[in-house]
Amino acid sequence: MPEPVTFPPAFLWGAATSAYQIEGAVREDGRTPSIWDTFSHTPGKTAGGEHGDIAVDHYHRYRDDVALMAELGLGAYRFSVSWPRVQPTGRGPAVQRGLDFYRRLVDELLAHGIKPALTLYHWDLPQELEDAGGWPERDTALRFAEYAQIVGEALGDRVEQWITLNEPWCSAFLGYGSGVHAPGRTDAAASLKAAHHLNLAHGLGTSALRAAMPARNTIAVSLNSSVVRTVSQDPADLAAGQRIDDLANGVFHGPMLNGVYPETLFEATSSVTDWSYVLDGDLQLIHQPLDALGLNYYTPALVSAAESAPAGPRADGHGASSYSPWPSADDVMFHQTPGERTEMGWTIDPTGLHELIMRYTSLAPGLPLYVTENGAAYDDKPDPDGHVHDPERIAYLHGHLSAVRRAIADGADVRGYYLWSLMDNFEWSYGYGKRFGAVYVDYSTLARTPKSSALWYGQAARTGELPPVTTE
Fold first, then answer.
1. CB within 8 A of 331, min separation 6: which ones?
2. 463 φ, ψ to 5°?
3. 3-class DSSP assignment, residue 143
4. pLDDT tens profile 224-278
5. How far is CA 405 from CA 299, 362, 373, 400, in A?
6. Dihedral angle, C-alpha 95, 96, 102, 107, nearest 10 °
7. Peptide bond into 421 cis (omega under 30)
8. C-alpha distances in Å from residue 294, one per residue of 283, 399, 407
């Protein structure tokens, strides 16, 4: 019989969501449109024209949702603040009604013994800032710092875990490169400018939070760093892997962790941009000391060199578009990795999570790590009795949490794990067709039903030990 997989006593067991995916109430209490409101209401941009106007109505049901988290035994909850809810249009003073929602949410979490982890930006840029140029414009980073100060001053007395940005790669390259995410622009040069200004926003936001909050609070960023593997050790394939690694990873962790961009990134993208928007002093502003690093992981990437731009859709797992999210990498081929897949078409490979954790243990020695997102979409349906059994997700979680535990045994300082997602929700351009939740949501009634995986994960959270994998 295998040894039980047991975690350190202080390990944090959480679940994660984001504002636009769950809150709804898009026109209440002073909130103005975000780029996702505009994008999702543009014909052809989301599956079935679906949007987050109501989502799962967390704005009105948050007390019940927090009670459900407590019933499941979660120790932490990672949520994001809607920028246009607390600072409509992205400029000027805060709307207290918007901030009051997050005050109430945080107080409810604390009353139930659940640690709040606050993400400032999970992709819902105020539309007026996009109209002024969006993330390719330097001013957006300055506006973000003001927003960070507003939220830090309002909630810094009761929230100790802070995250500046969630997955800036998606914001930059899916939003401005391939156009499959809001705002839906398809400009390779703009995507690289957006990446730099997201980096700058992180640095300026970190400094603003430090000035606005008690010193005990911790600040991190959540990166969806790719585990990039090559089909062979051929020099051409290795060069292709380096190019994708720079565009997926080095473009963010280079300046954030080390204060430098990879020279190979500059060389590879020189035909697209001259990087003249990187001003003197920017790298020092970006390279702020962090208290932790968040890692989001779903599946590895497998690449090779190609003699010319590959025909047909890319197998990079980032949606269908005739425009690439990989500037200056049209001659890189993405391959489907072998193995079982989730409903997203993503290969299930826990070894990638172990590899990712160990890489950042080496890149940033001494920096505590959190897995801030990990999970899987499956075609979950209630049985005739109303129960939702999802043994595939239980197996997925067992495999990936076991990989986290192996990394801890190998010397990694992993402090916690946030399951994506707490409940089914609006899955961006996929609409409501992809269910990542541990809690099933009936979209006609918005009733919540914990799936088998939620009960399994809750037992792990309460005991610090992974229960056996069951098939029921």
1. 240, 305, 306, 307, 308, 309
2. -105, -20
3. helix
4. 999 999 999 999 999 999 999 999 999 999 999 999 999 999 999 999 999 999 9
5. 18, 17, 16, 9
6. 170
7. yes
8. 20, 19, 15
As a whole number of angstroms, the distance between CA 395 and CA 389 comes to 12
Other Cβ atoms less than 10 A from the Cβ of 18: the count is: 27
Strand 218-223 relative to strand 161-166, pairing: parallel
Q: What are phi and psi of 90, to 5 degrees?
A: 80, 10
Residue 180 CA to residue 457 CA, distance in Å, equals 32
Which DSSP letter does residue 247 get? I
Contacts 24+ apart (CB under 8 A), 375-378: 375/298, 375/419, 375/420, 375/421, 375/436, 375/438, 376/298, 376/342, 376/343, 376/344, 376/346, 376/348, 376/436, 377/342, 377/343, 377/344, 377/427, 377/434, 377/435, 377/436, 378/342, 378/343, 378/435
CA distance 41 to 36: 8
Q: Which amino acid is at 319?
A: G
Lookup result for tokens 């600040």? 219
89 burial type by CB count under 10 A (0-12 exposed, 13-18 middle, 19+ buried): middle
Residues annotated as catalytic (active site), given as ranges:
373
The upper half-sphere exposure of residue 428, i.e. CA atoms within 13 Å in the direction of its Cβ, equals: 19
The radius of gyration of the chain's CA atoms, rounded to the nearest angstrom, is 21
Residue 79 corresponds to which amino acid? Answer: F
pLDDT in tens, 294-345: 999 999 999 999 977 677 778 899 999 999 999 999 999 999 998 999 999 9
